[in-house]
Amino acid sequence: MRELVGIHEQKDIDKLVEKILRDLGRPEPPLDLKMVRELLRLDRKYYSSTDVGPLAEFAHRIKVAGKRLAEDPSVILEVVKKAKLSGLWLPDDRKIFIDSEVPELKHRWIEAHEITHSYVPWHAEFLLGDTELTLNPACHETIEAEANFGAGRLLFFGPQFSLDAKDCSQSFKSVQTLKARYGNTLTSTFWRFIEDRDPGRATFGLISDHPRSSEINPAPDGSGVHHFITSIAFRQLFPHVTAVEIYAMLKRNISRSRRGPVVSGNDVLIDLRGEKRIVALDGFCNTHQVLTMGWLPP
Ligand SMILES: [Zn+2]
Fold it and tell me: What is the CA(148)–ligand 1 centre distance, in A?
């Protein structure tokens, strides 16, 4: 998702996050989103398929293909579901809306995402523009990627997470420690740990099913892989290595156990010069998914 966010936009969003943290008096993690909402004077509301009422406020603002929708909130719900949105942001009323049918674990991320739409000034212009609820797919994708980038920077305190992660060892245990400290999901903490702990060290993260236990987290496409995350250095040293190859590596190294540490030891990857490189592995199963990290030991 980061590739979609331009360097300048990343810098601008970092500055905006920095200002929020400063205005909050530099709190310690975890970030209290209620304080952020109060600071930014935002109102939070929930909607669901059985309670579309809150969406009525959108009815007179949303145009689809140049036409206004009927003032029927259930039509809006349909549009929202089709656009795969889990939340909404209404700039002129400073309100954010969250789909309460999304698992609660994800609400924090959705809220931070919608909050980001509110503090990134060019998002308001965009949402208030002619098409209002963004329907240009390319544009929409960029705006959404920026909101996800901002959500990550906010929930992980800008540059602070990467500094904290560097103080911890390269291990799954560190991810758990940082998850507790920042109060974010295991998945998002794992993701940030792989990308941000040390972008100069070749590191990958694989979020997958359990190759020896078919009922844990099966992937819809049958590949077993849900996400393949890599550091900048990994992409430079192993540009040809795919998620499929890493999944095969996982298969060679995973135990039958379905809970706790399930992967450890070393394996080998061939780098772009054709040289064999030792990769250290550490993986964990939380009974819902397997999270595996691999890195080149120093
Ligand atoms: Zn969004």
Answer: 8
Q: Position of tokens 């523009």?
A: 129
Read off the tokens for 73: 């909130």
CA of 112 to the centre of ligand 1 (A): 10
In this structure, what token pair is assigned to residue 120?
A: 């990134």
Give the Å distance between the CA of 166 and the centre of ligand 1: 30
Amino acid residing at 267: D
Which residues face 96 on adjacent strands?
Answer: 44, 89
Question: DSSP per residue over 65-87, as a string?
Answer: TTEEPPS-HHHHHHHHHHTT-SE
**How far apart are the C-alpha atoms of 212 and 239, rounded to whole Å?**
28
Burial class (CB in 10 A: 0-12, 13-18, 19+), 87: buried
Q: Measure the CA–CA gap between 47 and 114, rounded to whole angstroms.
A: 14
Helix ranges (DSSP H) in 215-292: 232-237, 243-253
pLDDT digits (tens, 9 = 90+) for 37-51: 999 999 999 988 888
Q: Which residues make up the environment of ion ligand 1, defined by Cβ < 5 Å? A: 144, 147
How many H-runs (helices) and E-runs (strands) does the chain carry?
12, 10
CA distance 150 to 14: 8
Burial zone of 191 (CB within 10 Å; 0-12 exposed, 13-18 middle, 19+ buried)? buried
Give the global pTM.
0.88
Structure token digits, residue 98: 């969250």
Phi, psi of 61 (to 5 degrees): -105, -20
Q: What is the pLDDT of residues 264-297, one digit of tens each?
A: 999 999 999 999 999 999 999 999 999 999 999 9
